[in-house]
# Entry
Amino acid sequence: MAGFRSLARQVRDPRCDLALRRYSLRKCLERFAPYGHRATWDHLCSRAGFGPEDRSPDPVRLVAALDELEEARAVWLAYEVEFAERRKKEKHDGLRRPGTVDDWHRLTWGGFGVAWCDDPAVHPREPLAEVLRRLIAALEREPGSMCPVCGGVQLAWKYDLDHEPSAGPVCTDCGILVPRPVLTPEALADARRARVLVSA
# Structure
């Protein structure tokens, strides 16, 4: 099975058939898809300027989409290295029990669903790398009461998400499943009440 870098080389290779280059970009999302496969694909297509169903996109646009994905992946991989080093130090210092950020991180190892968007058509508009930088910054500071990606304050608790965890606070502005560790207990309670109000 080809890895991310091998697939990325195929996307860039002008000797490859255009259908293979598009397919290889889609396969990259099996290795790294911050919003989930479908929402990340929709995001990359809209940012690069080709349709999600376009079978013959401009190769330049395909490579632009890959460039954005690679930049975001580099941001996430750097975070994972820092995270692993921190956990190693904590274990050395006798802190064996992981915290809430560690529990969340375990579910997103590799970068899949880091900023999960259950609705593939609703996702942040900013470049993926910027979204991940904002999310990482929020994970490294004290919890707050708003979406770490867009600053939205309207969070609603949603159930039956196609993700793990299958329920949680979703930003009604940008569509991401907000990681619980970045929110205060009061913000989580408010999101749960918003869910109750929505369903009433």
